[in-house]
Amino acid sequence: MRFASLLVFVLFWPCAWADDWRYSESENPMDGAVSLMAMSPPAFPSDPLPYPYSDLSAGLVVHCLGGSTTVMLIFPRTRFPLLGTLSGGGIEADVRFKWDDLIEARLVREVGNDGDSLWLPNDDGVADLILQSGSLMVELPMYRHGNVYFNFSLSGAAEQVEKVVNGCF
Hints:
By secondary structure, the protein is mainly β. It is built from 3 helices and 10 strands; from the N terminus they run αββββββββαββα. Helices cover 15% and strands 40% of the residues.
């Protein structure tokens, strides 16, 4: 249920889109739970990939549901074959993030069976890094393709991410 609202938000995402972060707020008609979400414009691999990954794009999402904020990387057009270790919750991998000049490794976990989203389970401080940084590069280990790099625009992120963080309770 947590990611049902994400699906609705992502359906229109790959369409023509300005270089702006987007904010979405929705309410579950069944139980009234409110979902808040901020999402980056699409990012593409720095080096083109061959078919079937030639149209691969990624988005950075800050999501709040039930008082809990999570940060995810989503792949709306195709599955991302993360190279990592199989665990009870899917595949896990250490991924490098470069926030301006700060480089750090964080654990990511594949969410669901289709590999279209990667969750940062230890996402403490990630929303703050998004707010404080001007740029983000993510290095993802991809099965049979080595490391794939995505550059995310953080321009305009502050206003949208603050709405999620401040409204999450």
